[in-house]
Design goal:
- The chain is of the alpha/beta class and about 325 residues long.
- The chain folds into two domains: about 180 residues, Isopropylmalate Dehydrogenase (3-Layer(aba) Sandwich), CATH 3.40.718; about 120 residues, Isopropylmalate Dehydrogenase (3-Layer(aba) Sandwich), CATH 3.40.718.10.
- The protein is about 40% helix and about 20% strand.
- Strands 3-4-2-1-5-12-11-6-7-10-8-9 form a twelve-stranded mixed sheet, sandwiched between helices.
- The longest helix is centred in the N-terminal third of the chain and has 20 residues.
- The chain starts with a strand and ends in a 6-residue tail after the last helix.
Length: about 325
C-alpha cells in the first residue's frame, strides 16, 4: 500500500492551510500516498471557503479512524480549536498552543510508525512565543539532526543553522564536518543512493583560509578513509553550480545563508527540506506563515507539493524524485 503521509497544517492564521489544500487539490499527492492532515478542521474549512478551493474534508479522532477514501481528505482534529481564534493574519497564543500539540502528535506518530512520513507546514514564532513554550518547538529538532534543503538536483545541508556571522568560524571544526558527513552519507544511502558523492564547501573565498586547511580538509580526508566519497573543501562560489550540473549528490555548507541563498536562487518555488538524523521521514518547506497574504488565495503551493511528493517517494522507498 502507498505510505501514509501526515501533514501538520501549520499556523491556522497563516498560509499553511492554504498551501496544504492547494497541493492536495492538485491530485498528485493522492496518486503517491495516503494523505492525512493534522490540525483544525475549522481552519481548513475557513481557508477552503476564502480561497475558493474544491476539496472535501472529514474529521477523524486518530489515525486508525482514517479511511483514505477517494475524494475525501481525513483531518486528525483532536483538540477542536475555537473558531473565534482563527483570524487570518493574527498571531494568538491559542493557535500557538494548537500548533505545538499538532507537531508533537506528528512526532509521536512518526516515531511509532503509525505514519510513514510527516510534513510541517509554516508555523509562526510569534504565536509560539505568546505561549511561553518556544523551547518545546526547539526540542522537536533534537541535537544530532540537520536540515537538508532539496531544490531539484541541488541538495544542501549546513553544519549549523541560525548562527551570527561573527560566530560562524568557531563552528567550523573537524568534528562538526565529519559528523555531518557520516550522517548525510548514511541518510542518502537509506534513501536509495548506493554511493553518494558529497561535496564540502569551503568557508573562505576560493576555500583558501585557515579553517579550510586546518578543519575542513582533514575532516574530508578522514571521511574518505572511512569509504565516504567526499570532496573538498570546494570553492563556495563554484560548488553549488557543480551540484546542479550533477557532479555531486549533495553539498555540506559551512553556514545557513551560504547554502540557503543558492537553494532559494536556483528554484525557490518547489524547494523543500528533509530532516536528517531522525529515525523517520520528516520534511518542512522553506517559507513562513506569511500573515500578510493569509486567506487571500495567492500563496504559492509548489514547495508544499514538492514536500508531499518527496515525502511519499522517500517513505515509499523510491528515493529522491
Amino acid at each position: 500500500m502507498s505510505p501514509i503521509v501526515a501533514t501538520v497544517i501549520g499556523d491556522p492564521c497563516g498560509v499553511g492551510p492554504e498551501v496544504v489544500l492547494k497541493a492536495l487539490a492538485s491530485g498528485q499527492p493522492l496518486a503517491m500516498s495516503r494523505p492525512l492532515l493534522i490540525g483544525s478542521l475549522a481552519a481548513l474549512e475557513k481557508t477552503r471557503a476564502a480561497c475558493g478551493l474544491d476539496i472535501t474534508l472529514r474529521a477523524v479522532s486518530d489515525v486508525a479512524a482514517a479511511r483514505f477514501e477517494a475524494g475525501v481528505i481525513d483531518v486528525l482534529d483532536d483538540i477542536r480549536l475555537d473558531p473565534a481564534e482563527i483570524v487570518f493574519g493574527r498571531a494568538s497564543a491559542a493557535c500557538g498552543e494548537a500548533v505545538l500539540h499538532w507537531l508533537q502528535t506528528a512526532e509521536r506518530l512518526g516515531r511509532t510508525g503509525a505514519v510513514h512520513a510527516s510534513i510541517m507546514a509554516p508555523v509562526d514564532s510569534t504565536a509560539i512565543r505568546l505561549t511561553g513554550k518556544l523551547k518545546e518547538l526547539d526540542d522537536l529538532q533534537p541535537a544530532g539532526t540537520w536540515l537538508l534543503r532539496v531544490s531539484g538536483a541541488l541538495r544542501v545541508v549546513p553544519i549549523a543553522e541560525h548562527v551570527l556571522m561573527r560566530d560562524v568560524p568557531a563552528t567550523v571544526t573537524q568534528d562538526h564536518v565529519l559528523t555531518l558527513l557520516r550522517v548525510l552519507n548514511d541518510t542518502l544511502k537509506r534513501f536509495g543512493l548506493a554511493q553518494p558523492r558529497i561535496a564540502v564547501a569551503g568557508l573562505n573565498p576560493h576555500a583558501m583560509g585557515p579553517e579550510d586547511r586546518e578543519q575542513i580538509a582533514p575532516a574530508v580526508e578522514h571521511a574518505r578513509a572511512e569509504g565516504i566519497v567526499a570532496t573538498g573543501p570546494v570553492s563556495p562560489d563554484a560548488v553549488f553550480r557543480q551540484c546542479l550540473e550533477g557532479r555531486h549528490d549533495a553539498v555540506v555548507s559551512m553556514y545557513h545563508d551560504q547554502g540557503q541563498i543558492a537553494v532559494k536562487t536556483a528554484v525557490f518555488e518547489g524547494a523543500c527540506s528533509v530532516y536528517i538524523g531522525l529515525p523517520y521521514v520528516h520534511l518542512s518547506i522553506p517559507h513562513g506563515s506569511a500573515y500578510d497574504i493569509a486567506g487571500k488565495g495567492v500563496a504559492q503551493h509548489k514547495s508544499m507539493l514538492a514536500a508531499m511528493l518527496t515525502a511519499a517517494a522517500l517513505a515509499g522507498g523510491r528515493g529522491f524524485l
